[in-house]
Predict the 3D structure of the following.
Amino acid sequence: MRIAISTGGGDAPGLNAVIRAATLSALRRGWEVVGIRDGFTGLMSPEKYPDGDGVITMDLNRVRGIGHLGGTILGSTNIGNPSEYPQQQPDGTWINVDRIEELVGMFGSAGIDALVTIGGDGSLSIARRLAEAGLSVVGVPKTIDNDLDNTSATFGFDTAVQFATDCIDRVFSTATSHSRIMVVEVMGRYAGWIALHSGIAAAAHAILIPEIPFDLHNVAEMIGRRSARQANFAVVVVAEGAMPRGGARAVTGKAIGQAERLGGIGERVAAELALLTGKEARTVVLGHLLRGGNPTAFDRLLGTRFGAAAVRALEAGHDGVMVALNPPVVDYVPLAEATAQMRVVDPNGDTVVSAKDLGISFGD
Ligand code: F6P
């Protein structure tokens, strides 16, 4: 048996723990393991790797001492989805071509029997297409945003929430010392899990998430009520994908073959709240800091369980599945089911309701 491992989409703390666990579990079964560089680029465009190392041999030495490190030793990319591969036409325009069948053929030519692919919604949808085209695939759910359905957690989320909480804790000093509004922008494209969990954990006064379109007049009123009782400051956490009621997400740009780049909502919220309240407001954007650093023990453990379970899935002949945390066990979900919908925050769920019970404003 010869398996490949690949990591796709935005990096998340815990990827290396999965790579290590899958490699060690496979090697212990006497299988061969290779790693594909930068998503599928190492296999699809080997010419980009002058030393011929687009596909590398994974042995004990390669994975020694990596389980606690952030990032991915294989590299990752969110450009060049093989099912919508950007190709320039002779007239200079770009079209997307479907290269899935071709990619399955490349696995065959490289003598690879099965793939463990670690990624978020985009990579798992590619995994589903590869499985439908005949490749033996097991997906591993990854994202700091925690927006994948059918698994109660993705690795990377716990690390991101812990770091965001530490950062929000820190802005309280400036908020109280200067009687300011401090706005902290965190990642969270379609789902506000990071903002919700870190905002509650750090006792923020307002939390703005994509699932609950906001009206800043409501947030300003809450800040006004605080001022009336001498609490002259406020801390607001906003997810990058949050949007005003009737408005749109704040976007900074879009490159060919990539999703829209989000950004700017924190600045907009701060500027408008300053106008509405007459207070000074400042913004901190945590952005990619949330994806960096060493994974928490929770994410190392989850990544390790996922990596080992992916190999057991292949051994048992379960392919076309995603490993999933279904407490207390890790089990398997068909990829088609796993990618059918996103898991977003329920505005009427107990976490939001509890936050509202405490007086936290969601701007609604
Ligand atoms: O999907 C994870 C995520 O962190 C999103 O919250 C964010 O919009 C995106 O990645 C940013 O990706 P990039 O690294 O391409 O800017």
In short: The chain has two domains: 2-155+295-338, 160-290. Residues 132 and 320 are 8 Å apart (CA to CA). Residues 10, 78, 120, 143-145, 187-189, 240, 261-262, 291 surround 6-O-phosphono-beta-D-fructofuranose (CB under 6 Å). The two ends are 55 Å apart (CA to CA).
